[in-house]
Specification:
Blueprint: H1 17-27, E1 35-36, H2 37-43, H3 49-57, E2 70-71, H4 85-95, H5 108-111
Parallel strand pairs: 1-2
Helix pairs in contact: 2-3
Length: 116
């Protein structure tokens, strides 16, 4: 019988208290603005940019957390391993009035939240 390996995970569920604080901070990002994983992490005690990314990935379908407003530090939509999430995120942001340059980047000075 072939062995079944369980893939270990170090990612807590979306109900984790740290994730809930991250989600509360992301909900504060206004429509038409973006924040980086790192900026969100700086505003949430105990979070890192990587953990913010894990929290966004752990959101269940239909969540009301505006995950699309969190981008990488270069103002880019981070690549996804599966699905069309990258294009979907860009389209939602464009509908909110966020523009991208020819390299696919958002001007953080213009659209960043909170303002530096």
């Amino acid at each position: 019988m072939p062995s079944r390996r369980k893939t270990p995970t170090n990612r807590p569920p979306a109900s984790d208290p740290l994730y809930r604080r991250i989600y509360a901070e992301v909900r504060r990002i206004p429509r038409g603005r973006v924040s980086s994983y790192g900026r969100v992490a700086k505003r949430v005690q105990g979070a890192t940019a990587r953990i913010v990314g894990y929290a966004m990935a752990a959101l269940p379908p239909g969540s009301t957390v505006p995950w699309q407003r969190v981008v990488n530090h270069r103002g880019e939509v981070s690549p996804r391993k599966h699905g069309n999430g990258q294009m979907r995120q860009r389209l939602i942001l464009e509908r909110e009035g966020v523009t991208f340059d020819l390299r696919g980047r958002i001007d953080i000075r213009l659209y960043g939240w909170p303002r530096p």
